[in-house]
Specification:
heterodimer; A: alpha+beta; six-stranded mixed sheet; three-stranded antiparallel sheet; elongated; B: mainly beta; about 0% helix
């Protein structure tokens, strides 16, 4: 009987130790990534390197993405710009910008009048809850944007996928 | 192995808007993550992807590390 309880105690101790060391390991991994994803860029900071003071309006651009994304490593997103896509009036670029990612410009798409509609869809990585900005440059030099907050429960920058 | 898969509609009429879908098998390593031995996984990113129709470039994508692994466009 005595021997039995002794092994049980030992076993419990072992479990506890394993738990604590696991936690330490975890925090070490989290620290090891030299990420500065704590800072949040303002809209101006995100947009101005591309817009450079040109006309910027918030209209006729739709972002379709989940409001709550379980996994930041894979967030499906669709951008649709209302544009006739004619020779005179078309969308030339679509930018996807992130507020928190280490690389602000997530992707750039180049389009032209030969594209039937100004829409793109892809899957992005997000380092935590943030505003995602879609920016479109029109052929007349004007910029359109829209933003959407996506809540990310698991950041892309913690797990190794 | 299929590295890239492209999908488009079977029958395309002239003047019709066609959606072409592309799925690439690519790790898109950001260069920020470390593997279990503590080594930094080097950056491995698709930089430019172009789509041509005949001789004309009709679509161009410049992804960055913000695009998920196995990118889909």
């Amino acid at each position: 009987m005595k021997a039995l309880s002794w092994t049980r105690r030992k076993g419990l101790k072992g479990l506890l130790l394993a738990g604590i060391s696991g936690m330490c390991l975890n925090s070490q991994f989290a620290h090891a990534q030299r990420m500065n994803s704590g800072r949040l860029l303002s809209l101006e900071d995100m947009v101005q390197p591309i817009v450079r003071g040109d006309k910027l309006v918030k209209k006729e651009l739709q972002i379709e993405a989940p409001i709550l994304a379980d996994n930041g490593s894979l967030v499906p997103i669709q951008i649709q710009v209302q544009s006739p896509m004619s020779e005179q009036d078309h969308v030339t670029h679509i930018y996807l910008l992130s507020q928190r990612n280490p690389v602000t410009q997530m992707a750039m798409f180049q389009l032209g009048p030969w594209n039937g509609s100004a829409g793109v869809s892809t899957r992005i990585r997000l380092a935590g809850t943030q505003e995602v900005v879609a920016l479109a440059r029109l052929s007349n030099g004007e910029f359109r944007y829209n933003q959407m907050e996506i809540i990310v429960t698991e950041s892309s920058c913690v797990d190794a996928s | 192995v299929n590295i890239a898969r492209v999908q488009w509609p079977e029958n395309v009429r002239s003047g019709e808007i066609v959606k072409v879908r592309l799925l690439i098998q690519h790790p898109m390593d950001t260069g920020y993550l470390q593997d279990f031995t503590g080594k930094v996984v080097p950056r491995n990113i698709i930089r430019v992807l172009t789509c041509h129709l005949g001789s004309q470039e009709v679509f161009r994508i410049e992804p960055s590390s913000g695009i998920a692994a196995n990118p889909f466009f």
